[in-house]
Design brief:
The protein is an alpha+beta fold and about 220 residues long. The protein has one domain: Rossmann fold (3-Layer(aba) Sandwich). It has six helices and nine strands, in the order H-E-E-H-E-H-H-E-E-H-E-E-E-E-H. The strands form two sheets. The protein has a six-stranded mixed sheet, covered by helices on one side. The chain starts with a helix and ends in a 6-residue tail after the last helix.
Length: about 220
């Protein structure tokens, strides 16, 4: 039982060892107020998320909504959860400026939040180097799990992207020497787990970048 607890704690620690860096394409040009209202565009609409299961996409959507609500943004909803309200307001095409404007003036949501997934990598889950290979400085096995995520905030009234950031998240795993002098390489991270870390980092950055300055 003790070994199992240690293993579980190790897995939790490793899952947190994902590093994320943010690259800004467009700095936030608006003052984002909690009462403005934000609609999250469904991840199922974005072809780049097809590599994730339905359950994984749903989990990511719940995470984004939860993270924003935890930061005080109570008017945050998933776009397709408002089917009735959208239909009643005659909103069917987001590319139509007249229909899109109704999202703000009739439903009270000022922004759309869209995500897309760039390239991903999933290296080996386990590998091994002998003592001789490690001593000879042979190339380290490719253990990296990584994902590139774009997070864009769109102003409903203009249809313009007012904040555009790319989050690059990586988890390189870890190595451990064995009794024979070799090295075991492990990485328990998953693509979906790395994306979750990137989403958390990206949402936090977005809210700070778009925060209203106090005079």
């Amino acid at each position: 039982m003790k070994k199992l607890i240690i293993l579980l704690l190790s897995l939790l620690f490793l899952a947190s060892c994902t590093n994320s860096k943010i690259y800004t394409t467009r700095s936030c040009t608006v003052c984002l107020n909690p009462e403005d209202g934000i609609l999250l565009l469904p991840l199922a609409w974005e072809p780049s998320f097809r590599q994730l299961s339905v359950a994984q996409k749903n989990q990511l959507e719940r995470q984004i909504l939860s993270d924003l609500k935890a930061k005080g943004y109570d008017r945050i909803e998933l776009y397709d959860q408002l089917d009735y309200e959208l239909l009643k307001a005659g909103i069917q095409d987001l590319n139509d400026p007249f229909q899109r404007a109704k999202i703000q003036f009739e439903l009270g949501y000022s922004y759309l939040l869209g995500l897309s997934l760039g390239s991903t990598r999933e290296g080996e889950g386990w590998s091994y180097q002998t003592e001789q290979e490690a001593f000879a400085l042979d190339p380290v096995p490719d253990m990296e799990v990584s994902a590139i995520l774009r997070i864009a905030l769109i102003e409903v009234s203009s249809g313009e992207i007012v904040s555009d950031n790319t989050v690059v998240s990586k988890n390189s795993g870890f190595s451990k020497p064995d009794k024979d002098g070799g090295l075991d390489y492990w990485n328990f991270a998953t693509i979906s787990g790395v994306i979750q870390k990137g989403v958390a980092k990206g949402v936090d950055f977005l809210t700070k970048q778009c925060a209203c300055s106090v005079n």
